[in-house]
Amino acid sequence: MQCALYDAGRCRSCTWVEQPIAGQLSTKMTDLRQLLTGMAVDEWREPVSGPEAGFRNKAKMVVSGSVERPIFGTAPRDGQAQDLTDCPLYPASFPPVFNALKPFIARAGLTPYNVARRRGELKYILLTESQQDGAMMLRFVLRSEAKLAQLRAALPALQAQLPQLRVISVNIQPVHMAIMEGEQEIFLTDQQALAENFNGVPLWIRPQSFFQTNPSVASQLYACAREWVRELPVNHMWDLFCGVGGFGLHCATPQMTLTGIEIAPEAIACARQSARALGLTRHYFQALDSTNFATAQASIPELVLVNPPRRGIGEALCDYLGRMAPDWIIYSSCNAATMAKDIRCLSGYRIRRVQLFDMFPHTAHYEVLTLLEKEN
Known about the structure:
Layout: H1 4-7, H2 21-35, E1 41-44, E2 58-65, E3 70-73, H3 94-108, E4 122-129, E5 136-142, H4 148-161, E6 165-172, E7 184-187, E8 194-198, E9 201-205, H5 215-230, E10 236-240, H6 246-251, E11 257-262, H7 265-278, E12 283-287, H8 290-295, E13 303-306, H9 314-324, E14 328-333, H10 336-345, E15 349-357, E16 367-374
Parallel strand pairs: 1-15, 5-6, 10-11, 10-13, 11-12, 13-14
Antiparallel strand pairs: 2-3, 2-4, 4-5, 6-7, 8-9, 14-16, 15-16
Helix pairs in contact: 3-4
Keywords: 4Fe-4S, Iron, Iron-sulfur, Metal-binding, Methyltransferase, rRNA processing, S-adenosyl-L-methionine, Transferase
InterPro entries: 23SrRNA_MeTrfase_RlmC, MeTrfase_TrmA_AS, MeTrfase_TrmA_CS, SAM-dependent_MTases_sf, U5_MeTrfase_fam
GO biological process, one term: rRNA base methylation
């Protein structure tokens, strides 16, 4: 992929951008095989990839510069901020929104936050797009509520200019640290979630709920998990670290009992809304810590699906699963190194299938789905 930002030395986020996609996939597969060295794998499936440009459904922009000339991009380094609004990873629908937001910031008096001086209000612009209908969610991350009234007063003109902005909110992040968002979310629109749909499964995107940033590959990841689960005689499954429920909702049938656990209440609200839309009556989504929930249970279902953050599922959950020994474990990971470490701790299982999903082209990162089966 050709990237003018990379060529000019303005951005180095995509460290592999000079390599062809085929070469990137080959290197990632080599890395995954090395991480699983010594563990027998029954089936290595072909890696899955998607578009190499325009695939992101989300932009997280640090706002710097001045209120009259704001810059959307990375945090200033050596006093120099880089505008990344023309990043080729964003779809063509994003630049017009960025272009409209810059004069809006001046009208609303949202002075960009200056880290060195600890002054200003606007820290980040977060933009998310639904692939279902092109609707967007816009979030302003502010230091305080000082400019909230001015923002509300200026908002109708922006909404008239950009009717695709269906969800608009303000997140208050008062801490002087590199933290993306705070706990307080103030909605400026009646609508509070974007409707999305992967593979016929309705999903919802709300502020402060994790959602995959590469919809093309994520939809294939969920479809693959559904294919694997539907081949198994499963009456009850746990979906741990479930997020908005993408895995569990794809895999569940009306006859199956689905228990989804996620610590973020906003994500659980999305999952419950999707389950209702699908007509699922045997679903139980709860906002709890996945490890604490699981290890407190006296029994376990036939299948446990885990989709942990980069740190992996950890020793406590590994020990519990090893002792309780569900028939199958499906492990979805964005960090194959911690996944491999966890699998080595799960004695009594063999790896039935492994499939790599290139969720993050032009970088060393990837997603991997692994099916583990209890040995007799």
